[in-house]
Design goal:
Layout: H1 2-11, H2 15-35, H3 37-41, H4 53-69, H5 75-101, H6 108-126, H7 135-154, H8 169-194
Length: about 200
Amino acid sequence: MIWIWEWFKHSLGKRWFLWTLFIVNLLGTIYGFIWYKNQLAETPAYLTPFVPDSPTGSGLFTLVILTYLLGRHIPVLEALAGITNFKYGVWAVCIILAGWMMGNEVRWTDVMLIISHAGMAAESVLYARFYKLSILPVGIAALWTLNNDFLDYVMDIHPWLPSVLDPYDGFVGLFTVLLSLVSISVIWIANSKHTINKV
């Protein structure tokens, strides 16, 4: 099993793997924006950039993969993508599981969303060793992420929750802010420990 893991890690920087990841993330991002179409239609235009959380995270990560294919690094983009893609990947998995625990029906779409969002979180950490991060880009990404939490739960534009979780909106908001802080820390630590800067 060790050789499989070593092969997989070595493949992360290969162009065939990057192209595969680019296509998968691009298709997932398009699907994600379609998923949000009803909520976007009900949101004031000036707030719409802050509504589609997961597809924004995956879309930013798709752009990161594209920059790698072009032989470039954009630290602010890497920080934003790494943090938000990880955060919303974990967030969606936790919210779906919480809905199940509260009595929500288990649907195939939920299983699909758990798998795809777990993949979002995983890829953000796996590629963290390639990011060229410093305090400034991570600080900018942190401000964006926490500001998005503020707008989500003060302006009430957060992703629609399973109905069984609606009474716990405040707890979900607190969990989301704490998850933002955890996500910032995870990406920073993962990058600091395993920086390769070659892809």
